[in-house]
Design goal:
- 0% of the residues lie in helices and 41% in strands.
- It is an all-beta fold.
- The mean pLDDT is 83.
Amino acid sequence: MTPAFHWNIKQLFVYVVASYETSTKVKNQVVIWDKIVEATSPKKIIEETNLFVKYGLVDQGKGLRDKDIQLQLMWDHMPITGLLYMGE
């Protein structure tokens, strides 16, 4: 994560998004895990073991059964000043 930090970055909001399709909706996205990495933190590496889903992946009815789910690591750059922007 170190290359993502520079003089104008306060923190990174890192999160995992689960994406899937159902018969009623082509694109469903759910955030299942997140973490804030501060610029002041001396260790800018995310190391997790035995990680559990922070937010449940739940769908009304049986929309998730037998579906392929794509996981994507994403992040938002939170600057000290200026516009917020995203990365994948």
